[in-house]
Amino acid sequence: MSWPRMRWRWLTAGAFVAALAGCSVGPNYHPAKVALPSTWTELGPGGTTNGTPELARWWKHFQDPLLDSLIVRAVRSNYDLKAAEARLRAGRALRGAVLFEFFPTIDANASYTKARRSQNSLAFPVRLIDTDIYQAGFDASWEIDVFGGKRRSLEAYNADLQAIDEDRRNVLVSLVSEVARNYIEWRSTQQRLALARKNLGTQRETLEITQQRSRAGLASDLEVSQAQAVLAGTRSQVPTLETLAKQFLHRLGVLLGESPGALQGELEKDAPIPPSPPEVPAGLPSDLLRRRPDGRSSERQLAAATARRGVATAELFPKFSLTGVAGFQSLSTGNLIAPQSEFWSFGPSVNWRLFEYPRLRAQIRAQTARQEQVLAQFQQTVLTSLEEVENALVAYANEKERFLALTEAVAANRRALDLANQVYTGGLGDFLNVLIATRTLSEGEDALAQSQGAVSLNLVALYKALGGGWEEETAAR
């Protein structure tokens, strides 16, 4: 039979068997139903609303061009994000390899064999004792996916790839929030340093005045010692603040894929802490699962685990394959490619693992348990997401309230210090009141700077908890 006729029969048989492949065993995936609250419990205080949030590039709400620049550069150069993108490319390659399992595998081969037969083992004389055998051809096999095991496998790999993509987006969300957080921490510490140095100058002047009054007999040595103690206490804060500032600066450099000290010159100029907007829309809880990449990744992992139950179930059923071998074989290269040198074989085969049913059933039970495990993890991810948003809402609102109270306290402390100085210089008050008012004002100003930074930091945490920062990733590049 000629090769074209054999090929036609093979393809006809393959089409017939493929027509049988219409079902996919195992459960079909349906998204898990999760009960979500209708609104946020902690919504309202601090200017938070349930309006539709603009989260694609939420950092723009701080209206800080330098912060915008740092985030764009981090998205372009951060190595954690590059590693996540490489994992995504690897996942795409593996998914592509799975696609080829649906097609026949064809292997070409060629061989040359030189052989000698034993004369003592032959029943009658032969013409050739020494032979040279030349052979060229190919062999093919095609497993028909009758019960859908391969389709379920492809379904699982597609879900895995989507989960990897969501993991990459989650890295992006974390990166953007980390850049914003460290930048705000840097500005807050920078402001605290400026306040500490300003207070040092004021306290040095107070000490000099006290020493002059002591030499004139108008102040005691106790007052001089008290002024020295206040000055030394403020001076002790500066090294700690400088250490914090350097750490935030170094972290920003690494987040941008640069050396730790690369941003020293760019960020050394003082600038205000990025303020929060007057109103912050937080959306609805029902929107959270569509936005947060970690929740979307967990849902895709659940889809993959469900599909793999089908892969395990398909092993209970027979596997149908078509196999064929064709080529040329001759004792001489001169007539190797000739009709008389053709050889071929073709036929279907069935493989059914009947005696492995207990083991296959155990594998199905194991995969079912894995699916239940992933489902529980998905439900836990949902609850954790809701918790993070609620915590961020209450932290943001309460810190704004604390900031307003500290603002009033600092204003009152300034008035108290002015009054204490007036009373003391007028000879009607104790110097201790001046020192107490000075220390209280210094501590209040430092707490106010920390609170101002904490308001913005809590807003960053809220944007991160809402899953913002990945929708327009290409625009940020």
CATH class, named Mainly Alpha
How helix-rich are the residues, as a percent range? 55-70%
Largest sheet: 4 strands, antiparallel
Show unreliable segments: 10-21
The rounded Rg comes to 38 Å
Distance between the termini: 62 Å
Stated plainly, the CATH topology is called: Outer membrane efflux proteins (OEP)
Please provide a written account of the structure.
The chain has a single domain (23-102, 145-317, 352-476), classed as Up-down Bundle (Outer membrane efflux proteins (OEP)), CATH 1.20.1600.10. It has helices at 3-20, 65-77, 79-99, 149-215, 221-255, 264-267, 288-291, 293-314, 357-425, 431-465, 473-476, and strands at 48-49, 105-116, 130-144, 280-281, 319-330, 342-351. The strands form two sheets. The protein has a four-stranded antiparallel β-sheet with strand order 2-3-5-6, with helices on one face. It has a two-stranded parallel sheet with strand order 1-4. With 477 residues, the chain is an alpha+beta fold. Residues 10-21 have low confidence and may be disordered. The two termini are 62 Å apart. Helix content is 61%, strand content 11%. It has eleven helices and six strands. Helix 4 (149-215) packs antiparallel against helix 10 (431-465). It is elongated.
Structure characteristics:
single chain; 477 residues; alpha+beta; Outer membrane efflux proteins (OEP); four-stranded antiparallel β-sheet; two-stranded parallel sheet; 11 helices; 6 strands; 61% helix; 11% strand
